[in-house]
């Protein structure tokens, strides 16, 4: 309210959006004036499209009777509606950095008259992927602005970078950094990687599992989990960066209105998405950044409610689990479900982050091993056939050699007879014994001349004009016989006689 810079840190679900939206609306209402053309009075940057839409809706709801104009700008949609919304200026502009810079490069947006600059989810916005865009945006802002930074986590290196952009900020920390909500019941289930899908389906089949968010690390992983659950009859949708804006909005609307029970998402949905009555959060894969765990489980137990967070951890993720416990300063209860006979392992081979199989098999075909076939009939390393064939696991090498010998003999007998070569003439002879016709220039000539020309090393003597040019000066002059055309040199001239 005094106009000083602020750095606020609080748990997820404690109302950080209202903490900066209400004072800003009070300031705008107390000092009403027209917004600058193609600009705004308040600029709010958010890391994701969903969070930007949610912040804009909060401003509209809180300032419903104040006559405040609000616009939202992010990628994935057309430029023209956003340019038209900014043409006359708006009071509050909520934007993603990428699209905002695009509009600034097109001279469709001017933020030099901004009075208040808000950076929501400051730790992620100031991370490596957003440092340069943020610095470009800040360079176009007025030096007399007020800066407000809010986040649930603030690592030391990110805090130092925020101090460079803030001018003597007031730090307000409601709870210690990276503190999880108290009303979230957390537990970890130790399980093999191949049994995660079966365990997830078992957890979702429980009657107490209501509206559930499932988090994965990769976009491909989110699609695979969603297809697996949908095949089991679960109403599910996936949301990640590869989805179009329309698909993401429809998935969120279906999840908010209860048309689907499970939403599989990457960390794109872990930042500031406020969905009512989310009872469970399942970490299908633990995040590589420990602070992201706080944001994930913060999607439940919001506004004083209670919730449950379940994390599935395999052997390769034990180090990530220790990092999460170290950052959150707590020990999460463990439950060991490894070697559980009631959980059937998934026969689909595990995949890496880029979609390639973990066993090194090439995409587009099965891996050959132990003499198995290449195209669909060979067996995998577990001994089961890929396309339903029932080949035996162990075949004796002698049988392979015998069958290979039979195929070789059969192929040898099936080959057509090769054309034999006449040693005396150096020409191939057809199987019926007939020799091919000579070229036109060799008709009526002796074989000795042809053989002599073949020994010159030129293989093009039978080809058109090249054949005549190879004779050169060695060719004998044409004989003046009966019926032959006389040479020009022997023709009598008109002056003679």
UniProtKB/TrEMBL annotation:
It holds the Pfam family Helicase_C. Belongs to the DEAD box helicase family. GO terms for cellular component: cytosol. This is DEAD/DEAH box helicase. Residues 370-387 have a biased composition (Low complexity). The lineage of its organism: Bacteria, Pseudomonadati, Pseudomonadota, Alphaproteobacteria, Hyphomicrobiales. Residues 331-497 are annotated as: Disordered. Residues 199-344 form the Helicase C-terminal domain. Keywords: ATP-binding, Helicase, Hydrolase, Nucleotide-binding. Coiled coil: none annotated. SUPFAM superfamilies: P-loop containing nucleoside triphosphate hydrolases. It comes from Hyphomicrobium nitrativorans NL23.
